[in-house]
Amino acid sequence: MAEFIRAQIFGTTFEITSRYTDLQPVGMGAFGLVCSAKDQLTGQPVAIKKIMKPFSTPVLSKRTYRELKLLKHLKHENVISLSDIFISPLEDIYFVTELLGTDLHRLLTSRPLEKQFIQYFLYQILRGLKYVHSAGVIHRDLKPSNILVNENCDLKICDFGLARIQDPQMTGYVSTRYYRAPEIMLTWQKYDVEVDIWSAGCIFAEMLEGKPLFPGKDHVNQFSIITELLGSPPEDVIHTICSENTLRFVQSLPKRERIPLSQKFKNADPAGETNPSDILGVELIIGGSGRSARTNACLRSQEENLSRTSSST
């Protein structure tokens, strides 16, 4: 039987097997505490995430099971990998993954990103999403703090606690508000992998501008801010709204024209040979249809740009 060692981190009991030493707090989230540690078996640094009371409610049990199942099966350079899992004597679950130095949120709040890093980060985000989506999985909570980065600028998507296998009927409210696709607000149930592409577009815009693109105070304000830039939803999108209250709200809004993204991002440097406004024009579409297919074309273009850049250095 494994020997467990206890430590107090941020007032929380952290129980780990003796295989892991040198615990240091990394961050605290709504659903768990993350510490760095050294794996005595491999000599490598790792991240250990404590899922607190994972079986206390059906919702938390589902979330924990989803994340475990997906981390176990998803294997890609731009997706975080699971190396170990254990249950402590107090019946908390611990996920052990590779350790990366920081996340994109911390990078964005510390300093502006240079053009070449923005291009490389966007490429890796889209590459990781393409793999996740090819497995029939929707992340549903893509945001800068769920994108890990190491000192080599390698990027990995993490936190699959809200991820789901694609299903015709999806939970309505998911994802952090700033990065939430409008179809989640409009239809509440019927959405697909396109919601992750919207989130990626919001993150790309934030990398360009150094601040969130749609910083809504609530879901009503959020949707209003979106339409101020992207215009009113087209009629075919409005007709897909399931909620009568939401439909009345959308129809009550003043008609707005889309502002050209080239005007909004006129100071943004081109990402290689691709204009940022062209990429955002593909990702930020009210009504998700077509975002993913068009973004894959952008991904191929980004890959060619990066290949040319590396061959010329």
TrEMBL record:
Residues reported in the UniProt entry to bind ATP: K50
Sample GO molecular function, one term: ATP binding
Source superkingdom: Eukaryota
Record-given protein name: Mitogen-activated protein kinase
Keyword Kinase among UniProt keywords: yes
Alphabetized SMART domains for the sequence: S_TKc
Organism per entry: Orbilia oligospora
EC number: 2.7.11.24
